[in-house]
Amino acid sequence: MWTFLETWRRSPRNRTARSRKPSNPQISLCLRFIKSACSNSARIHDDAFTMMLSPAQCRGARGLLDWSRRQLALAANIDIANILELEADEGHVPAAVGDALRGAFESGGIIFIPEDSEGAGVRLRKPRENSAELTRRIDTIEDNLAKTEGPSAQTPEGGMRTLERAHKRNAVTKLKNRRTKLKEKAK
Predict the structure, then answer these.
(1) Averaged confidence pLDDT in the chain
(2) Residue 56 · residue 7 · CB < 8 Å
(3) For the segment 127-161, what is each residue's pLDDT rounded down to a tens digit?
(4) Among 42, 50, 117, 125, which is least packed by CB within 10 angstroms?
(5) Contact 110, 124 (CB under 8 A)
(6) What is the rounded distance in angstroms from the CA atom of residue 133 to the CA atom of residue 179?
(7) Which pTM does this prediction carry?
(8) 8 A C-beta contact, residue 154 and residue 160
């Protein structure tokens, strides 16, 4: 598609004598948009939509996972030169490379956010909680509560300690509720 538009743009009847730009600003804007979209984004295929993996998304996903380019190349089973090419926004990256990168990032816990009015992005998936982890967190907070002093004199510091203890008790209650829900789902 891009070669067709370049051919159309370069034909003599679609340009002015002084420049190679189309005379219609809307067509010029459309060409710039298509060129930027086709330039160097690895296509990401999904059941619901086709998404482009931009260089910024690749760098962002690597940063969230704290992976080097070498670690990503090993996880995706691709050549590191492909990652360098994608992140530098140079040349064409094959769709197979984009698929391999997406698979590696998703197995590492990355979620790709499709483009909307705010733009495309990446984020980390929430870790799945289990009952043993919640129990460990509850025990840690309860031990911390047992070590701290109870209510004290009516001073600002005493009031802050009381407030901190209330927040910790609230956190324990929330964790116990989540643990109960996890156990009910497991049944």
Answers:
(1) 76
(2) no
(3) 777 888 889 889 999 988 888 776 666 888 888 88
(4) 117
(5) yes
(6) 9
(7) 0.49
(8) no
CA distance 97 to 106: 14
Predicted confidence band at 11 (pLDDT cuts at 50, 70, 90)? low
- Any idea where the domains of the chain sit in the sequence? 2-124, 131-186
Contacts of 127 by beta carbon, 8 Å cutoff, 6+ apart? 109
CATH ID of 2-124, from 3.40.440.10, 1.10.580.10, 3.10.20.90, 1.10.260.40: 1.10.260.40
pLDDT at res. 61:
92
Sequence-ordered list of residues with C-beta below 8 angstroms from that of 110, at least 6 positions apart, any chain:
61, 64, 65, 122, 123, 124, 125
The residue written with tokens 């059941």 in the block is: 47
Question: Which single residue is written with the structure tokens 């590696």?
Answer: 104
Q: Which residue has the tokens 């990256």?
A: 93
- The residue written with tokens 């710039």 in the block is 32
- Per DSSP bridges, beta strands 110-113 and 121-124 are antiparallel
Alpha carbon distances (Å) from 36 to 6, 56, 76, 126: 13, 14, 25, 33
pLDDT at 170: 93
